Amino acid sequence: MTVLKTSVLVLDCAEPEPLARFYAELLGAAAGPAPGDGELILLTGGSGVVILGVRRDANHVPPSWPAPEDSQQAHLRILVAAEALDEAEREAVALGARPLAAEEDGSRLDNRTTLRRFSDPAGHAFVLAAVPEDPAATAPAGDASGSSR
């Protein structure tokens, strides 16, 4: 019999409060301290599922993207309805995200990119990826915010 488990991606950073606020605003989530762990902040999505953790690490060194050259690294993939991708990008940048790259996959008639890479205020990589319909309507519970590749 398999023991019931759950998991959450946790990002380390020197200052977890501002980074938790960044992701809470970007993902429309609520942020609060983890029970019994003063160094961890958990973000909870609208469905009540914990979607991300942010933990204090005083010795944190921001990751680089990409490194080594063109390697795939763990990152957050945030799914966005294709028609809302430009607006999601503006939101992310207004909250403090730094654009890293945009890639054209040939699927949009207007030649706009459908995959946009950013770093969050603490240097972690994340991607805004266009999907054909509202990701919150089709994603499994707890996965509407994204996943790593």
Structure description:
The chain contains three helices and eight strands. The two termini are about 30 Å apart. The longest helix has 12 residues, at about 15-25. By secondary structure, it is of the alpha/beta class. β3 (about 35-45) and β4 form a beta hairpin. The strands form two sheets. It has a four-stranded mixed beta sheet.
Question: Mind sketching the topology for me?
Answer:
Blueprint: E1 10-13, H1 16-27, E2 30-34, E3 37-44, E4 50-56, E5 76-81, H2 85-95, E6 98-103, E7 115-119, E8 125-131, H3 135-138
Parallel strand pairs: 1-4, 5-8
Antiparallel strand pairs: 2-3, 3-4, 6-7, 7-8
Summarize the structure.
By secondary structure, this protein is α/β, with parallel strands linked by helices. Helices cover 18% and strands 32% of the residues.
How would you describe this structure in keywords?
single chain, 3 helices, disordered C terminus, 8 strands, alpha/beta, four-stranded mixed sheet
Q: Tell me the series of helices and strands, N- to C-terminal.
A: EHEEEEHEEEH
Terminal-residue CA separation: 28 Å
Number of helices: 3
| Strand-residue proportion | 25-35%
The 3D shape can be described as: globular
> What structural class is derived from the secondary structure elements?
alpha/beta
Q: Uncertain segments of ≥5 residues (pLDDT<50)?
A: 140-149
Range of helix content: 10-25%
Rg: 16 Å
